[in-house]
Design goal:
This protein is of the alpha+beta class. The protein contains 1 helix and 3 strands.
Length: 78
Amino acid sequence: MGDVGKSGTARSNSLRELFGEKYDASVPCPWCESEDTRVSNPFGGTVSEMSMQCNACKATFGWMKWQDQLPGSDVGRE
């Protein structure tokens, strides 16, 4: 049973790295507008959303993967 947790953690870290390669330091924070952000979890409230964290103001926010925009807005990456 201990192996299941380890493989799940390894998979989560691998997905975070995969999404991080594309999105770390490129998605602006909606609160302070810093681009010093990182993927905190590749899956947010829905499968299509990922959780991001701003390293400058420490805020956590969602980002829509397929449209490159904040959930519920028309604001996208430029």
